[in-house]
Structure formats: structure tokens, C-alpha cells
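Retro notes, structure queue

What went well: the backlog is down to a handful. What didn't: a couple of records were mislabeled last round, so from now on we paste the full input next to the output in the thread. Example, using Sigma-70 family RNA polymerase sigma factor from Butyricimonas faecalis:
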Amino acid sequence: MYAYRYVQDDAITDDFVQDAFLNFWERRGEFHALTAIRSFLYLSVRNACLNWLKHLAVRQRNEMDFASFLQEEPEDDFILEDMVHAKLYVAIEELSDRAREIVLMTLKGTSNPEIASTLGVSLNTVKTVKLRAYRVLREKLKDFNWLLAMLLIP
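Corresponding output:
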């Protein structure tokens, strides 16, 4: 009951009390009076509870900080992302009609067999056109490859 006043969780308080008795048992030769044993047990349980509460407070604070960090997206990130997307789509627009169509369908998540079926071409044609288009895009966007990789990886 003493531990429960600090930590309202029976499982946790049971562990603290058990640890206190275990520590007492290991050091039982050091105690010569019943009052010393009682004080030791109460202090051990109280300190374990206070340490647990301190740890809980730190963990909760860190979780809140981490959650707010994950939610924050500075304006600069949006501006940079928009700039890279704009450069990517400008480069795609400079591709041939067929290559542009295949690359845009790929960016929308369409599979190679679906592209081949939709466009009425062979699967090998889709793969070849896509390979050539990616080479052209890589060359045109070579200064932005690292940014593209970061933005396009799911």
C-alpha cells in the first residue's frame, strides 16, 4: 500500500517490494534491530518508486519532444521539395511523348505489364523505353540525385 501511493500500478509496486525484500535478504547480516529493517524496506521502496516516477517523467517528455519533432516540417523543406519536383517534371516534359507517358505512369504506381497493356506495346518495349528515359533524367538531374532519392523513396 505504501508503494501504491506513489505508483498506482500493482505489478510495478510488487516488483519494487520484492526487490526491497531481496536486497534486505542479501544484506540481512547488517541489521540488528527490527526498526532498522523496517526503515530499510520503506526507504528502498520509496526510492524505487521515486526513481521510476523520475524515469517516467523523462520518458514522457522525450516522447513529446520526439512527437513534436516528427510533426514539425519547416517551410524550407516544402520549398526545397517543390523545387525538386518542379525540376523533375520539367525534365520529364522534355522526354519523347512515349517516354514521358511511360515515366508518368510509373510515377503513378502502374506496373510494367499494366503499362504495356494500356499502351498496346510489348513488355520489353516498356522496359527499354523506361531504361533510356531514366538515363536521360539521371543526366539532366545529376546535381539533384541525392534530393530525388530522398523524396522519391517511400
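Agreed that this is the format going forward. Reviewer comment attached to the example: The first helix runs from residue 2 to 6.
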